[in-house]
Amino acid sequence: MAAQGDGRMRVEVETLFHELADLSPEGRTQYFVEHNVDEDTRREVEALLAFDSGASSFLLRDVSIAASRALGDIILQQMIGKTISHYRIEEKLGEGGMGTVYRARDLNLNRSVAVKFISSELGDAEHRRRFQLEAESASSLNHPNILAVYEAGSVDGQQYLVTEFIDGFTLREWVRRQKPSVRQIVDVCAGIADGLACAHQSGILHRDIKPENILVSKQGYAKLVDFGLAKLLETEAETGPADTVARRTRAGEFLGTTAYMSPEQASGRTTDARSDVFSFGVVLYEILAGQRPFTGDSNVQILHAIINDCPPPLSKLRPETPYDLRVIVEKATEKDPSDRYQSMREMVVDLKRLQRIRPADQALPLREKTASRPWRLYAVAAVVLSIAFFATIWYLDRAERTRSSRDSQTSNSLSWKPLFPRTESSWFSNPTTRESLMPRSARSEAVHS
Fold it and tell me: What is the pTM for the complete model shown?
């Protein structure tokens, strides 16, 4: 019945979305009042309309942004071989919605670093100020699982950020290439969660947690990246979802961001550290299950799924996942923030407790802990019973051999030696006494001799 109810609500939301898409904000408000639309449905429809509005705004600006990016690309292509501050640009590593990343050589310390040039459309004065503030916040974080920020500046109108260089892969690539054990996944995620907890304690929210923003080195240690950049995009978005989506659209991160949104982000509500908890839980779910928990053919459907649908249980998609790990993921991805971990530190405690279940050089057992315990008890009981059985057989056999040996010695004896020396004065010298104490066989032989 619940599934049918959710299906009806989805149809209703999509129907309202299409009916109200062309109306003005005032017309939409009037429609909600006249048709007595309940608060939950109204909030979801408004969030989807805001998302659609942001996408439309992006398309209208498409030509000017494309021109701006083309000019920025020309400048960035000329960066290779140049020296920025004391960093010599050596190689292009990749690019995304936020900008282009290069590997460079720190000429002062003779080390490799990463230099990210921010997209040119984010280069107005307000964004420059905010970027500088966020770069300072990120550089203030000192944690082994957070990418270290060395410097921020600008050259030829292009803002850049200098960070430590990680020779490795994104989390998504790492899972695909390395096919890690459950234990390795727990180790990596425990480190990232600890880094997030450190950031939260410093008052910094990431707000854009996804596999592409987690790097794993070839040595197996993980780093959380792009602190501040996601916050930059959403600093002004807390008044509603429309601006959030518009800025995310300009960064070219429709699906990448939408799929990992928390329900409160998707519905335009106020967010806090528990939103990062949800997004991180979605990432953990994905790398364990091999698929995202919330999917759809469009961003509207994905947002609806995040707000209303329950993901397929890990116990069905990957039943060998340890029970305690499934519980952690389920708790982190609760729809209601009050039902989740109330802080990332709480989640860290559970992940580290799970790490201690087995020695560090062993993978976690790919079965439910509670299910495996009876089998261990049965095995121990079988060994104990086997030992007892063979010990009993050995004892009985030895006793039988001893008894047979004793009877044989008694029956074959031809004489019986007294315990004490024979003397005339001894009570044993009495024939009657001696004869009564002798074995019957000996007395018989004495009579016939």
Answer: 0.63
